[in-house]
Write a structure and sequence with these properties.
The longest helix is centred in the first third of the chain and has 34 residues. A hairpin with a 5-residue loop joins strand 5 and strand 6. By secondary structure, the chain is an alpha+beta fold. The chain is built from 17 helices and 19 strands.
Length: about 625
């Protein structure tokens, strides 16, 4: 009896502790949310200006409010230049998609295999989960709000089905899951930390339906109608729309939901594996160590990667290009609206009327329409139009200056917006202008490249932790040939390899570089002839690889020779009579000269040399590489 009472008291004490911890997590979230309120209002203002609601501002109490007209007749149209500028930047940034490559730490065979395997894993994950589309969404958030985040998780229900458990439920091999997280959902413990490394604790909070919480954590919550932490999309006000009554933007209200709060804490002396605490609706849903060994040297760390538009010193969240464009947009709207008001005065006219000479109400309602018979008092002065002068040239000059300032601040020139400068006529000058655009975007592209590298590191580390002992991977090898790879998760080592990204260049820039190399003769042999292999690669770069492969069998010979190189590692392979001698021998020798096979065994190398000799004997070649005369 006493033991049951002790157990009951322990359970009651544990329940009280969990409720106190859940309340403490909720209070910590509210405190961080209040500290970040001014930043969040700035993000809302940016989103309003991007969508075209450009007559709002932040009030002294920190709220976003609509600006009132000074006079009822004032024109308040929005001539949105921010949206096309952001569209142009995003178009350039999303086309510069860096592909991750892994460079081996040394020239040892184990490091070489780990590097090739890691590169294949990253390429496969990129296609399976649509990493480019996720990066495009994150880039949109970072361009508008200044920062965006990637959340890299391991989904146990992802990947292929590999078995069925004892209850008949399918068992999956698991797969990486990457989410683009807006900055509205991220709450660091210090807004002065310049990167994630300077943050000790991080909260990810979002509105989640209680049904999803019950399915994942097994806890039934009552739920309520709450607004999402990230605002919804905006509709652009126009002549037939009523301006937004809530300039702060509408937030999608989710019914039967709760705010799911995930608090991540870095490892400390007291908690060497860190802490992950999840609470919602006053209930503690999970408490334990950080789940992933995604840090350096196998340490546990946050599953987040930050991407910035423009970094600020001493600030956790970055700066958006929209922040810098808002003052110019306000001035541009004022100039264009005042200009249109002036044009309205010139076209509609301002009528001066002697008091009592005409019916003023009728004149104000109908105006001075053509052909109208105007009756005025005998002896009075007839109405006349007031001379309003001409539009001052300063309007045109100021409008041009503001348009130039848009391009200067955004880093996108007129050439990038399909407008060729009138003063530039040479191709070299146009290319220099495009290069200047790339240089001005380099701060943003560097941040995207660094975020992609860190994402790749975490992907490899999660594969190492969860992929298991026998994992099947289909990867594209040489000559677009699909290779099936079986590997062990322990073969992946993200600490002994170096991540590299391809040059952030558009397909057009790569093709232009290829044409320059061809014109310079760097792709030709000593006799000035273009080899068959280089010809196929040039056609593939211009998008004609599949068409050429369908008509020419040269690519098939190269693919067959590459397959023979792999099979020779296990045993002898005899050449076929229909093999093209020059292509096969060239591919085998290229394989022997490659850096990645310097450490192959002597037996493997001997089998390749014997295979090359058999090719030359079968095709009637001499030892010096010349082809024998045949009748």
């Amino acid at each position: 009896m006493q033991e049951r009472d002790n157990e009951a008291r322990k359970r009651e004490s544990e329940e009280k502790r969990k409720r106190r911890l859940a309340d403490e997590i909720r209070a910590d979230f509210e405190r961080r949310r209040e500290e970040r309120r001014s930043l969040e209002n700035g993000w809302l203002l940016n989103m309003n200006f991007l969508s075209g609601n450009q007559y709002c501002d932040i009030s002294p109490d920190g709220e976003t409010e609509e600006e009132d007209k000074r006079f009822y007749w004032q024109s308040r149209r929005a001539f949105n230049h921010i949206a096309p500028m952001v569209d142009s930047r995003i178009a350039k940034l999303t086309r510069m998609r860096p592909a991750l490559h892994v460079r081996a730490f040394s020239d040892e065979e184990g490091d070489l295999r780990a590097a090739r395997l890691a590169t294949a894993v990253l390429a496969g994950v990129r296609e399976r989960i649509g990493l480019d589309e996720i990066a495009a969404r994150a880039t949109l958030w970072s361009e508008v709000c200044g920062s965006a985040f990637y959340k890299i998780l391991w989904d146990e229900n992802g990947g292929r089905q590999v078995a069925v458990d004892e209850n008949g439920a399918p068992v999956y091999e698991g797969e990486i899951s990457v989410e683009a997280v807006p900055p509205f959902e991220i709450f660091p413990d210090s807004l002065g930390a310049e990167d994630l490394g300077g943050v000790r604790s991080l909260i990810h909070a979002r509105a989640v339906p209680v049904s999803a919480i019950a399915e994942k954590f097994g806890v039934a919550l009552r739920g309520r109608e709450i607004a999402g932490l990230a605002p919804a999309g905006y509709s652009e006000p126009s002549a037939w729309k009523i301006p937004a009554r809530d300039p702060g933007g509408s937030r999608i209200s989710v019914r039967d939901s709760e705010i799911l709060i995930e608090r991540y804490t870095r490892p400390t002396a007291e908690f060497p594996e860190g802490k992950l605490e999840i609470a919602a609706g006053g209930e503690l849903l999970y408490e334990g160590p950080l789940p992933y060994r995604n840090g350096d040297k196998g340490q546990r760390d946050f599953p987040f990667v930050r991407q910035d538009c423009l970094r600020l010193p001493g600030a956790f969240f970055g700066c958006s290009i929209v922040d810098r464009l808002i003052p110019v947009q306000r001035a541009y709207n004022a100039v264009r609206n005042r200009k249109h008001e002036f044009l309205n005065r010139l076209s509609m006219g301002v009528v001066t009327v002697e008091d009592g000479s005409v019916d003023v109400d009728e004149l104000a309602e109908e105006g001075l329409s053509p052909g109208r018979v105007l009756v005025y008092r005998q002896g009075g002065k007839p109405p006349e139009m007031l001379d309003c002068g001409q539009i001052p040239e300063s309007f045109e000059e100021e409008e041009d200056r503001l348009e130039e300032e848009f391009s200067l601040i955004s880093g996108v020139s007129d050439l990038s917006q399909n407008s060729t400068p009138s003063r530039v006529t040479s191709a070299t000058g146009l290319q220099l202008l495009l290069s200047q655009d790339d240089y001005r975007l380099s701060a943003t592209t560097d941040s995207i490249s660094l975020a992609r590298k860190e994402t790749g590191r975490q992907i490899i580390r999660l594969y190492r932790q969860f992929a298991g002992n026998a994992r099947l991977l289909a990867a594209a090898g040489e000559n677009k040939r699909v290779e099936v790879i079986y590997f062990n998760a322990s073969e992946l080592s993200a600490d002994d390899i170096v991540f590299e990204t391809e040059e952030a260049a558009t397909p057009e820039q790569k093709r232009e570089t290829l044409l320059r190399l061809f014109d310079a003769g760097l792709l030709s042999d000593g006799e000035g002839k273009l080899s068959e292999e280089n010809r196929l690669r040039i056609l593939d770069a211009f998008g004609f690889g599949s068409y050429e492969n369908a008509k020419d069998i040269s690519s098939l010979h190269l693919a067959k020779a590459a397959g023979e190189n792999l099979r020779l590692a296990e045993g002898e392979v005899r050449p076929d009579e229909y093999d093209d001698c020059a292509l096969h021998v060239g591919e085998h020798i290229r394989f022997l000269l490659a850096e990645e096979v310097k450490g192959i065994s002597p037996g493997y190398k001997g089998r390749i040399l014997a295979h090359v000799a058999a090719h030359r004997k079968l095709c009637g070649e001499t030892n010096d590489g010349g082809r024998a005369e045949t009748n």
